[in-house]
Amino acid sequence: MGTRKFVANPECHMVETGVANYLSASYLNEPRIGRLSAEKLGQKNFLIDLGSRKALKDIKNDTINEGGEVLGGALWEMRTKWSSMRLDAMVVKSWMATECGATDKMMPSFAKNLLGEIERTIQREAALEAGKILRGRGFVW
To answer: I need a labelling partner for 80 at 20 to 30 A (CA). Which of 4, 28, 50, 70 fits?
Structure first.
């Protein structure tokens, strides 16, 4: 794997946060992240819940972390439909192929890369279903 150059772009960081949340949860086979930290902070049962059906329209504070939780949740939903090992590899490959530039084009680029990977690896119908999941969460490209 290569390295990624830091670029001050909120959309870039939202995608990277979503991918990081998803891969962490997938590795642990647990969609809820940060249970112990939440307890220490006196918050709900966990910090991030990728098992929720949260969409971009549900974000209250418009933060990178909330957007990342929505994207991670969409990826987690896809994981419930296809093998986690297959999807994890497709997510990483798509993320690494996505250019994080100074403009807000990372999410459309990531979505196109991911849907292309799903179509090549699984089948066209799966890519169409994945696109429906992303659009249902409020992502457009």
So the answer is: 4
* Residue whose C-alpha is closest to residue 116's, from 106, 103, 130: 130
Contacts of 92 (CB under 8 A, 6+ apart): 1, 19, 23
CA 39 to chain centre: 25
Is 81 within the bounds of a domain?
Answer: yes
Residues 2-33 have pLDDT tens digits of 555 555 678 888 999 999 999 999 999 999 98
Helices marked H in the chain:
10-28, 35-41, 64-79, 84-97, 106-121, 124-136
- The structure's pTM equals 0.87
126 neighbors 79 (Cβ within 8 angstroms):
no
Domain containing 117: what range?
10-136
Q: Report d(CA 71, CA 106) in Å as an integer.
A: 13
Cβ proximity of 108 and 13 under 8 Å: no
56 within a domain of the structure (yes/no): yes
In a domain, 52, yes or no: yes
Q: Is residue 2 part of a domain?
A: no
Q: Which residues are 49's β-sheet partners?
A: 32
SS3 7: coil
